[in-house]
Design a protein that fits this description.
The chain has 88 residues and is α+β, with helices and mostly antiparallel strands. It has a single domain, classed as Aminopeptidase. It has two helices and four strands, in the order βααβββ. The longest helix has 14 residues.
Length: 88
């Protein structure tokens, strides 16, 4: 089965957060130092611009566009994209 791209669901958060945590651990994927709660992440990213790629029901990666309401002053009123892929 080929990977598919679909809209991210709230129920995907556990897998998305794990991939995000892998990216944070590299020290180069984001300025974040820990995975936020789903509520904080949800508020910081536009609902209509969240997608995951999945294969056999396993999330392989995700992409989202920030809402511009990020708490970090360097990102305030800016849109940024996040693209994270599962390692391995």
């Amino acid at each position: 089965m080929e990977p598919t791209i679909r809209k991210m669901l709230a129920s995907d958060w556990e897998a998305v957060a794990k991939i995000y945590e892998e990216g944070i651990a590299t020290g180069v994927a984001t300025f974040e130092t820990k995975v936020p709660s789903f509520e904080a992440w949800d508020k910081a990213h536009m609902n209509e611009c969240r997608f995951v790629t999945a294969k056999n029901n396993a999330i392989l990666g995700w992409v989202a566009l920030s809402s511009g309401l990020q708490p970090m002053c360097i990102w305030r009123r800016c849109r940024s994209k996040c693209v994270h892929c599962k390692r391995g």
